[in-house]
Amino acid sequence: MENSTFYVKSYGCQMNMYDSEKIISILENKGLKKNLNPENADLIVFNTCNIRDKAAHKVYSDIGRVSKSKKKKTIAVVGCVAQAENYEMFRKNKSIDIVLGPQSYHLLPLMIDDLNNNPNQINTEFIINEKFDYLSEQNKSQGVSSYITIQEGCDKFCSFCVVPYTRGPEYSRTLESILNEVSSLTNNGAKEIVLLGQNVNAYESYSGKYKIQLSDLIKSISKNKKVKRIRYTTSHPINMSDELINLHSTNDKLMPFLHLPVQSGSSKILQRMNRKYDTDFYLGIISKLKKVNPNIEISSDFIVGYPGETEKDFNETLRLIEEIRFTQSFSFIYSPRPGTKSSLENDDTPMKIKKTRLQILQEKLKNIQFNFNKTFIGKKLEVLIENQSTSNPEYFFGRTPFMQPVYVKSLDLKPGDIINVNISTCNHKSLYATC
Ligand code: SF4
Asked: Which of 78, 350, 377, 386 is deepest in the core (most CB within 10 A)?
């Protein structure tokens, strides 16, 4: 397929977006060129995610649309839906050429080459260390803020989630391979390292007989002088060790912002979700974090209308939001995923009520976020500049330590600058500043 063009469509979570970037670089290294118009592309890659509602349904309808195109295309479905649907995909849609699970997409070039011999290519094996080795080689440059996958998979089996089935058990990379990748990225300009994993704080590897946890890994990464900021996402409350919590007080490079999904403020619902903690436990973690670092801010995910959620349960979630005052969040109406435990539960809350609850919850979160942003107006805040706005070159885009997007009016900044800016105005999502 040399000289051919490709189009990649991503469907969901942060991990999926990150994987798409990797797929793009794999295909570019193979000599293919990116095409922003799916109509004209020779290869279409659907990088699927099962986190969002009706994921499989959306993929099939997108495949239906592109396969009607006049130009003959190779169609590859990769990611979590491919893993879950497996051979079934070829049966459901004859236009599909490649089905590839999330642990094997480094094999995409080989599978493309082999299409002449075998028109239905499939790989849904969990060969995760091979993938990490390959990607580490590819991951030379991402920019000022660079992501590194350090852990994949999940052993938690929350009742609503497909990840343990599609991404397999928890697996962590070695310290050495991660540090090598950090060096390679910082040598290419990275200033911020974002450690990524489905359960990133469950990270655990061994160096000889010594166990290395996320706190140890962060300490090692901090020794690299070119690294100015470190973040990690997504964490599970039960894996917030005291060592990791204390690091938020002692390590200046670790940003004072943590994405720690709670999902619900009702202990009854948390138990039904099999989250393995209750609200008191979650509040205890937040209190420990605030004690060691009063400046730390928390973001969360929320599922509204989980089977059995009563008005009382929902109000408990609102109370928890009021108490913690999350400064960012992602919230969704519950929808069952095939094969999960919760999909067998009786879901009798009417959709109208779920939608009203979501609206109330999002309004509350938005107000908290807006009020938080407003506290910075007239003050100075440190920003790591990531790029210049393409639509308005008078502005540079960056992020504060609390992950707030900032647009800085200036003509003489460059990516990688870390500067204190004057916050002049804001909305609930972003800050606006001058130098
Ligand atoms: S912790 Fe729960 S929600 Fe997160 S990936 Fe694992 S099973 Fe899914």
From this structure: 78
> Which atom belonging to ligand 1 lies closest to the Cα atom of 154?
6
Q: Are 75 and 42 in contact (CB under 8 A)?
A: no
Q: What are 372's two structure tokens?
A: 């938080």
CATH number (3.30.200.20, 3.40.640.10, 3.40.50.12160, 3.30.230.70) of 5-126 reads: 3.40.50.12160
Q: Is the CATH code 2.40.50.140 the one for domain 380-434?
A: yes
Going by C-beta distance under 8 Å and a sequence separation of 6 or more, which residues neighbour residue 236?
Answer: 156, 199, 201, 202, 261
Is the Cβ–Cβ distance between 139 and 178 less than 8 Å?
A: no
Residue 115: the pLDDT is: 87
Q: Which of 330, 335, 395, 396 is nearest to 365 (CA)?
A: 330
Ligand 1 pocket mutation, candidates 51, 152, 157, criterion most atoms within 8 A of CB: 157
From ligand 1's centre to the CA of 135, what distance in Å?
A: 24
Ligand 1 centroid to residue 274 C-alpha, Å: 10
Q: pTM above the 0.90 mark? A: no
234 upstream amide cis, omega within 30 of 0: yes
The Cα–Cα gap between 28 and 181 comes to 20
Distance 155 CA to ligand 1 centre (A): 8
The amino acid at 171: Y
Distance CA 356, CA 364 (A): 12
Pocket of ligand 1 (CB under 6 A): 154, 156-158, 161, 163-164, 198-199, 236
Residue of 258, 259, 274, 339 whose CA lies nearest to 306: 274
What are the tens digits of pLDDT across the range 170-191?
A: 999 999 999 999 999 999 999 9
Instruction: Give 158 Cα–ligand 1 centroid separation in angstroms.
Output: 5
Q: What is the pLDDT of residues 398-420, one digit of tens each?
A: 999 999 999 999 988 999 999 99
> What single DSSP character describes residue 32?
-
| pLDDT band of 234, cuts 50, 70, 90 | very high
Residue identifier of the C-alpha nearest atom 2 of ligand 1: 158
Q: What is the pLDDT of residues 218-227, one digit of tens each?
A: 999 999 999 9
* CATH 3.30.750.200 fits domain 279-371: yes
